[in-house]
Amino acid sequence: MNTKIEMEIELKLALLPRHTARIRRHPVLNGVIPQRRRLLSIYFDTPKHELMRRGIALRLRRVGRQWIQTLKAETQSVGALTSRPEWEVLIAGGGHPDFSLLPDTAMSLLTGITLKHVAPLFTTEFQRTTWHIETPAGDAEVALDHGNITAGGQQQALCEVEIELKSGAPASLFDIATQLLQDVPLHLEPRSKAERGYLLSGITNAKPVKSTPANILPHHTPSEAWHILMHDALAHTVTNIPGFLEHEPDIEYLHQLRIGLRRLRTGAMLAKSLGQTTFPWEHQLRKLMNGLNAARDWDVFLHDSLPGLAAKLAPSPADFCWDQAALNALSDHARHIRHQAQTHLLSPSFTQVVLDIGRSLLVPSCSQTAQSVKTWSKITLERRWQKLRTRCRNFSKLDPDQRHQARIAAKKMRYTAETFAALYEEKHTKPFITALAALQDQLGYENDLRIGTQLLRSFPQQSPLLSFELGRICGALELEAGRLVSPSDSTWNHLAKSTLFWRSKKQ
Hints:
Layout: E1 4-14, H1 20-24, E2 35-45, H2 50-53, E3 57-63, E4 66-72, E5 76-78, E6 81-91, H3 104-107, E7 119-135, E8 138-151, E9 154-168, H4 171-181, E10 187-188, H5 193-200, H6 222-239, H7 241-246, H8 251-272, H9 282-313, H10 324-345, H11 348-360, H12 373-391, H13 400-420, H14 426-457, H15 464-482, H16 485-496
Antiparallel strand pairs: 1-6, 1-9, 1-10, 2-3, 2-7, 3-4, 4-6, 5-6, 7-8, 8-9
Helix pairs in contact: 4-11, 6-8, 8-9, 9-10, 9-14, 12-13, 13-14, 14-15, 14-16
């Protein structure tokens, strides 16, 4: 039996089951005869889940009366676009994988794993409807999958659209997705069926994903470094979307999602120093970020500002508490705002921005500079530092609006410093970034208190007792904000005296 080896390149998006009819009658699929199949897939792993830990998915899929064995290697993702090598082969029967049919390249991925311990873990069963589309830019298969994932007696609905490249340029997938999105509210689902199966079976647990330092190396060109930064930022953003949609009370998902979006904006600004004109998606990205701000403001107010303020108003939490009825009213309102943010993420406009960013990363940027990545980093860091110094001049005399601008400048400085930190020795970067983070945190705390006051003043006045309690909280917030000027002044002075690592001759 011949093993089919290919690089799978696809866009994967999700939709609500009630919208499947809109896909089936979409104009882009008109005139294409669909193929329908019922597919049952059994996923395998060892008791220690060694395949999962290596980013490998192994399944047997029944198609009609045939069984197809598929081994997929670790996924590389750019937003909704994924690519990974896979090996497929027909096998006799569907009881157990036949590893003797895999080529050496595939078997090398399984080195050290006791294959006789491989056993079934979970299944997927769904109806797949496919349309083969031919465009001038390339051929693709659009697949609508609608069914269930089953693991450990539990079921989870499965409803997604996969657009797989058959020939031509990957950009053609984005063209098709954009056309579908005009009539169908598709949303982002970065997880594979295997990943969702592991989650449903309880083998893995969902948790917010934090950013990691981009792997920028001295031999990279500025253009290459920029692409690495943007790939990481886009992956960081998209990876946290399912968690926020499915685990809404965990506020860290939204926090990390917004960090990813800000990293994308930082990347867009960095591109200008390489001669890149404004991206078409920049304005929409800023607009969509603003749509998530209210949810984050309420999260910070309820989970950080209020508890922290209560702790400062009394020796112990037992000695002081806010009125419970007021807290309940505020919490209900915050939950409503979070639901609005979730709707925001499910909107076609948000999906389109991610698709547009992903598509822009397929095109190598034409850098107009011949400088090294280290020189580029030094110039960029110096510019950010001078802007921060300007914003922090006469720091102790800054009014609230000016301190807000200083906070934004500190945030941009920190993102830029962390972006390029991998190019320098940690012993030189860490002291500066630590001092910078302290200033950002201090100014951020002041800003959180002011935002808390604004939230309360705009809150609907439902009763005299509620108004009284909200006024009491407002007063405490304003008092706390007023006493913070002196400490943050010393924090800025400490940063201003720090060694600027990009200026060091040893670097």
